[in-house]
């Protein structure tokens, strides 16, 4: 899609606290741009640096940031869009672009990209990351930053067992083989031993997603060739409950109940700190699976923990495909200053802003990543390489995927991976869930976006 639309791009925005940053100059008109801001912690200072630089270059523009970091931030944005009160640059996660656009949120970025102040996105961005800002073939938003996934590895446990650290190209069969070797009971028997006691495990080979986190599980499903909705976004039947999907769900559950190499969601929920704490304590060989680059500081500060990250494994048919976590901005369709909004969006999502933001996050700007030596870094490089395997997000195929599929499917995942989940007929549950999801999608489409906002 990126090269097909080489003159089609928008830019992602950034964050700042509730403040205005302006510059003094001789201006015929002082323009004010409002920016949706989700920054916190040291990211606030980063945003300030970027905006101050923009103001210095554009002294007739004042940028006002509007904090929106509450639990209901996404639905608050939807309400702002529907009521015409949204800022000039609207923040959005990749999953919310369809719903926001159905509400009339964004300008098509194509004219800006193709215009005098445009650029060739194929020369700037990682294609898989850039494509997440599209809806129905049109670019509406660009990422400020993004996150792919990896598996966190306890190096010491691998070394003690004489097992090489995983490399790109490993598979889910490899994951299981390694997890069997690294799951150990109180008597020192691993899960391959006939004397292994599954009721008395002191070290697990791998963890599972315990809380129904559907985005993480999507990466797993994609590697099994199991997307959950049709390409035209009209039905989940035959997708959510496909043979590949059922096989993937059953294999994942078997990690807990058949192979005993992973703790159940019930066990993980009973431990303060959950799987992260277990990994820090040396009770997990492969931990925080499908997490992004969020744990570097935490794990580096953990005493006596030698750790690394590994690429995601391929599925049974060699498929290497995963989902992305992404946050960026689009230009409000009702902005009074589209050209100035584009200038700011471009500043934030390309080299000027990305050089600052990339200090603590992944940048979709290839040149910035390469210049900061992230590509070859043993930590950041794994996550960057995963950008070459990003697939189409199912949420972007239907604006109502979130309430109709994402949430109920996550609830089912929690039940399946908890104690008693071994009794669940997965095929039957997925068939029922698919029927309910299709009915929900049809009902939501008829009710419209406003009904979603009211029901949130």
Mean pLDDT, all residues? 92
Characterize the largest beta sheet: strand count, sense, and whether it forms a barrel. Answer: 5 strands, mixed
CATH topology label of the largest domain:
D-Maltodextrin-Binding Protein, domain 2
State the strand order across the main sheet. Answer: 9-10-11-8-12
Q: According to CATH, what is the class of the largest domain?
A: Alpha Beta
**Large-scale geometry:** globular
Q: For the CA atoms, what is the radius of gyration? A: 23 Å
Structural account:
The model is unreliable at 1-23 (pLDDT under 50). The chain folds into 2 domains: 20-146 and 324-392, Periplasmic binding protein-like II (D-Maltodextrin-Binding Protein, domain 2, 3-Layer(aba) Sandwich); 150-322 and 398-447, 3-Layer(aba) Sandwich (D-Maltodextrin-Binding Protein, domain 2). With 456 residues, the chain is an alpha+beta fold. It has helices at 43-57, 73-83, 97-102, 110-114, 121-124, 127-130, 155-161, 172-182, 214-223, 243-257, 265-270, 274-280, 296-300, 338-349, 351-357, 366-371, 380-385, 401-417, 426-447, 449-455; strands at residues 20-21, 31-37, 61-67, 89-93, 134-135, 138-139, 142-147, 150-154, 184-185, 201-206, 284-291, 307-310, 325-331.
């Amino acid at each position: 899609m990126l090269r097909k639309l080489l003159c089609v791009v928008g830019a992602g925005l950034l964050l700042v606290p509730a403040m205005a940053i302006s510059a003094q100059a001789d201006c015929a008109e002082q323009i004010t741009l409002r920016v949706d801001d989700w920054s916190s912690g040291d990211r606030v200072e980063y945003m300030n640096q970027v905006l101050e630089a923009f103001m210095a270059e554009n002294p007739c523009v004042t940028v006002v940031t509007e904090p929106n970091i509450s639990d209901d931030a996404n639905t608050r944005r939807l309400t702002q869009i529907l009521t015409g009160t949204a800022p000039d640059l609207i923040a959005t996660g990749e999953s919310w672009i369809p719903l926001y656009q159905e509400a009339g949120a964004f300008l098509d970025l194509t004219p800006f990209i193709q215009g005098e102040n445009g650029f060739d996105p194929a020369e700037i961005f990682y294609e898989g990351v850039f494509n997440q800002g599209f809806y129905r073939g049109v670019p509406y938003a660009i990422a400020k930053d993004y996150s792919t996934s990896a598996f966190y590895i306890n190096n010491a446990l691998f070394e003690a067992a004489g097992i090489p650290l995983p490399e790109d190209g490993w598979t889910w069969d490899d994951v299981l083989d390694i997890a069997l070797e690294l799951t150990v009971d109180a008597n020192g028997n691993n899960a391959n031993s006939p004397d292994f006691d599954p009721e008395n495990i002191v070290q697990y080979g791998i963890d599972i997603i315990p809380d129904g986190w559907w985005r993480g599980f999507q990466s797993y499903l994609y590697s099994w060739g199991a997307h959950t909705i049709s390409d035209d976004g009209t039905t989940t039947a035959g997708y959510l409950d496909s043979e590949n999907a059922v096989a993937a769900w059953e294999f994942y559950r078997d990690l807990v109940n058949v192979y005993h190499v992973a703790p159940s969601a019930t066990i993980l929920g009973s431990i303060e700190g959950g799987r992260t704490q277990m990994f820090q304590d040396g009770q997990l060989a492969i931990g925080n699976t499908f997490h992004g680059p969020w744990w570097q500081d935490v794990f580096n500060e953990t005493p006596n923990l030698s750790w690394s990250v590994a690429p995601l494994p391929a599925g049974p048919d060699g498929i290497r495909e995963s989902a992305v976590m992404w946050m960026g901005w689009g230009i409000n369709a009702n902005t009074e200053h589209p050209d100035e909004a584009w200038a700011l969006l471009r500043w934030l999502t390309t080299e000027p802003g990305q050089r600052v933001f990339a200090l603590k996050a992944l940048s979709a700007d290839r040149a910035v990543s390469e210049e900061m030596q992230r590509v070859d870094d043993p930590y950041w490089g794994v996550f960057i390489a995963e950008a070459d395997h990003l697939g189409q997000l199912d949420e972007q195929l239907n604006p109502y995927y979130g309430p109709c599929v994402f949430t109920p499917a996550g609830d089912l995942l929690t039940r399946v991976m908890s104690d008693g989940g071994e009794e669940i007929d997965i095929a039957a549950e997925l068939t029922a869930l698919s029927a309910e999801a299709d009915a929900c999608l049809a009902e939501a489409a008829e009710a419209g976006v406003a009904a979603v906002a009211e029901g949130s």
